[in-house]
Amino acid sequence: MTVVRRAGLALLLTAAVLVGFVGVTHWIMNIFIFTVMYAGLATGWNLVGGFAGYTSLGHAAFFGIGAYAMDVTFEHHSIGAGYVPFAILPFIGIGVAALSIPLGWIAMRTRAATFAIVTITLLFVVQTLAFNLKSITHGSQGMGITPPPFALHTYERPFYVAMLAMLVLALLITWYVQRSKLGLALAAIRDDEDKAHGVGVHVTAVKLIAFSTSVAIASMIGAVWAYYVLFIYPQFAVDPLISIGIVLMVFLGGKGTLWGPALGALIVVPAQQYFAYELGASKLYLIAYAGLFLVIMLFLPQGIIPSLASWADRNRHRRARTLSGGQLVSPPLHELLP
Amino acid sequence: MSNLLDVANLTKRFGGVTAVDDCSFGVEEHSITALIGPNGSGKTTAFNMITGYLPADSGHIVFGGAKMSRPRPAQLARLGLCRTFQQARVFNQLSTRENLVAASQPSWRQLFGARSTAADREQADELLADFNLSDQADKLARELSYGQRKLLEFAAALVGSPRLILLDEPSAGVNPVMIETMERHVRSRHAAGATFLIVEHDMNLVMRLCDPIIVLDQGSPIATGTPSEIQMNSAVLDAYLGA
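Above: the input entities. Below: the structure tokens describing the complete assembly.
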């Protein structure tokens, strides 16, 4: 990594942290938190949806499981000075990762559209369980967590930092996966899973590693969210719109890229909040969602980052050609002959 | 010489059609065996069952002494049996070089290590040079011509020096120069100790390259022998000409 790049990253991270410490009003801070939250969810989703090519609509289920895990844990335990709940996040992540392995093993025997349907079914199963396991979740009545004793004017800060930490974790994992044989195996699986079996890729294991890591991130983010919103109930914590929002953001920013999903969230979440504000509390913003999705599919089917990359690539080629005297150099014979 | 691969009583039915019917044959170690037969004689179905892409209704294979009734492609790859596909299946979104690295069967520890190490690149570049694909190393596989992709798939099957390589119509859809290139590679790998089982429609190529030849008709072998024996065999002529 070049020095410039490293400095740029350090600057970006510092800026992201500082955003949480500028004195803005609560509702702006609220938008920041949700933007970073979705950036983390989308980046985590990308591990399985972008790298392995498995479009999961079930991530909201694991988000909800994380949320309930948080509330159930602190139903009878003290949250102390308010920081204890953040400390249990790794345990929630590991627990959900373990739980997701058998689920993923079954779900990932299917592919493409079937996988999307299986995972959205999983989402509704978890929602139904949240409704009906009343002794644990209090059903449709919902459940809450004690509000932490944070100072009022900086109340959102710890939540913002926690969400940012989750985003950074997701980005680090993505960065690592891209640079390891794990990422190569995932790319092979995305291209042609049957062929990947044939050249000896550990297909099932690699898919499960991606799936469990991805949903573990979703669950930890769900846990932070539950603590932030204080009160949860089944339709709120296990919400199909969360899954759809994540997919939308990843598609917009660019599947299978490091920064694409976060970029998508950076555009979609503030836009969604703006629409919700402008169009009132009605669900009209959902129409804007659908419209955005259509625009992406029509004009940026690869997403922003891959489209920019191929545009830059084309430009470079054109410049190179102009430099060589504006003539199209014919390729050598052995390139013409296969 | 002993058989590297034995196919025993493989059967596959699709509804009322028996595509492969109680099919048994052997592939001798260090041979270039051809599997030929008229269209619909069950060559590709047999191929898919041997390589674990299609579960057999009954029967089993024995590869390198290990008996398997439900072989899995990944398991076979690790035991040293690799195949190519008729339509040249490569990883389109990976570079040519990475296509070979992806086929290198990393250990669990390597799976968590660097995407391609210096050793990986060296191994891949050696193969690419051998296949005259060095200039394409950094191109995405989807940018290659069909013939180049076919070569790349062949090269990827050779990563890790498998003992048995199954080629499904290596000459289909490629130009004559390329068929010669394929043939040269098969011969040089054969000289280096590899065994081949080839499904092929180009009879000139089969007769030049392969010995023995196994002829399938209606899902089971009707003849086995050297090219000259097969050319004289009346059952084979009947199967092909429909007498």
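Note for the figure: Chain B touches chain A through 47 residues (CB under 8 Å).
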